[in-house]
Amino acid sequence: MEQNPELSLAWQFIENTGTHLFLTGKAGTGKTTFLRKLKAESPKRMIVLAPTGIAAINAGGVTIHSFFQLPFAPYVPDTSFSADGKAQYRFRFGKDKLNIMRSIDLLVIDEISMVRADLLDAIDDVLRRFRDRGKPFGGVQLLMIGDLQQLSPVIKDEEWQMLNRYYDTPYFFSSRALRQSEYCTIELKTVYRQSDTHFLDMLNRIRENRCDQALLEELNQRYIPNFNPSKEEGYIQLTTHNYQAQRINEYELAQLPGRSFTFRAQIEGKFPEYSYPTDEVLELKRGAQIMFVKNDSSGEHRYYNGMIGEVVNVSALGIEVRSKGSDEAFMLQEEEWTNAKYVLDEETKEITEDIEGVFKQFPLKLAWAITIHKSQGLTFERAIIDASASFAHGQTYVALSRCKTLEGMVLSAPLSARAVISDSAVDAFTEDARRNEPDETRYRRLQQSYFLELLSGLFDFVPLEQALKRFVRLLDEHLYKLYPKLLAEYKSETERFHEKVTKVAQKFSLQYTRLVDAAEDYATDKGLQERIHLGAEYFKEQLAPLDAIRSNTMVETDNKELKKQLKIANEELDDIFLLKADLLEFVVSNSFHVGEYLKQKAILSIDDTAPTKSKGDKRSDNSSGKRRRKEEVEEGRGNSSRKKTAAVEVPSDILHPELYKRLVAWRNAEASQLGLPVYTVIQQKAILGITNLLPEDKAALLRIPYFGKKGVEKYGDELLEMVRKYMKESGIKETLFSD
């Protein structure tokens, strides 16, 4: 990679910036090798997706639709995955999937040329929902790998009629979310598949829609009518349609003498049929031409994916094969392919692959012929190509570029200009991308922007202030009478937070931005690191008052809708606060280094329901996420979802906490005995009124808000006895009802 400038620049973009990258290049330029290296060595948390099952298996990832639970219907922008906007699509992601989405740094999409614009916008929709609504793709960096001159997206006429109001082309680069983003294109130029420079030039001219009559005439010199090579030469035919390849293979197999044998794949667990890497049932005879569909896993390098071979012997006991050009036969062993999903390792908090299913079969298929579509990514020494019936953009280029040399290619029908199909939208995009290809200067600018973006995210307290205001607004609108003291505390804290935190942070951003601009090496500059450290210490201390009031907040209501709104607002406030507090603490202890910071942020973004550690554990411990801190806080906060035997927490506005605890415990026990919701026994507002007003008779009890005559008749005597007993124990002689 170090000797390839484009690959090196692509690596730097992924490792050191947050900019989206489209990595493209001719067939055989090393795109797949780059992806393998990235998966093995990059410190960024990533997932790899592809548009089809086969592409996903080959890339070592999963399909886009399965990961994001997307319907196969077109995604119409500004609606809920429906053309008329009426159907409401509901996402049902489990905790692990949500944690993965919220903690990844990088989303890799292989074979991006097959991804439609609306599918990319659907991905954007999901990521915004569950990450950052204000940023394209929820703030996740995209790496899109593919060649637009090869396979194109599939779209039906009726689907395009639905979508052409929103997109000028069906290609991924027309995505509205992508156009809102800054992204770069890097084109790999070194071709490793073909070494014949003249043949490379011919392929390049076809790829770039520069195919003139002279080029067609030169290519058509490889047209050999009725070409019938010997089986030893190992030619494979590439066809435009699946039925053509199937018909050729069935015919050739039938011409062979002897008995045929069938081998059925062993399928365990979940492995969808569209992802099968070869036939579920293989029918073979001695002498059959085959193609290996997987690299030799034995380490002996006897075959590789795309190599042509021959069946030497076959029986019910097994298959003996040899590759073309070799006299050495060997017994072929079954290979395994796995269908995986991404999960979070509970111990390490790393994203790992969980095997859902296994497909076990001999790694081959009949290969007198295959479709051009299925030849994508393969290389052949010799091929017979029928591209005269090409029907899609890039199909002829894909077919011709499978061959290593011009001499190894034979045309079964002459090529015409009509067979070289090009899309003007792709040509225009490619030309524009080449004019704007990034250089080292742009990379340095984007690297610095990424550093500042992460730093600004750390010291941006506006989302926390907004979450605080939303919670206070609910208290003010619905519970100001029940919790006046709590509301006053929150309003005071909101004002203090704005002055001491938000406004100071905005001024602080000007300081560290100037320091970054002035530093020769901002990533290691001691002055900048010291300023960041002091800033993190200051804001960590300024969060303490909010932490104190937040940790002791307990609000009860019988209104189901209000309870739901409070829960959402409270959890949002908790999540933002805890993540911010932990990140500040981490930076105070460890300084600010991008790689370490990203890893810690990812871990803290995980909703970890593991048991709480001891109080002596540091909050920045890598083995725990934000949920642990959240549980620590909730140990001191009343949680209405707890079991009825749990200790009763007392709101700050209660004048007589002990009586309040007794009344709540009595209500919970009564409701449990009757098998009814607690609010049907006595409403929360009535409990607050009784606790603070201390009624001594039924007349006073009737004046308690939200209690009523029926409540007095049913529970009056019991409640009054509890009040009298409490007053006697506490030495209280006068109440608000006393004359």
TrEMBL record:
The domain of life for this entry's organism is: Bacteria
The residue ranges of the HRDC domain are 653-733
Region (Disordered): which ranges?
609-647
The UniProt keyword set, sorted, is: Coiled coil
> Which InterPro entries did the record assign?
AAA+_ATPase, DNA_helicase_pif1-like_DEAD, HRDC-like_sf, HRDC_dom, HRDC_dom_sf, P-loop_NTPase, PIF1_helicase
Recorded GO molecular functions are:
DNA helicase activity; nucleic acid binding; nucleotide binding
Q: Which Pfam families match?
A: HRDC, PIF1
Q: Does the keyword Transcription apply?
A: no
Q: Cite the PROSITE patterns for this sequence.
A: HRDC
**Residue stretches in coiled coil:** 552-579
Q: Name one GO biological process term.
A: telomere maintenance
The protein in question is named HRDC domain-containing protein
Q: Which organism is it from?
A: Bacteroides oleiciplenus YIT 12058
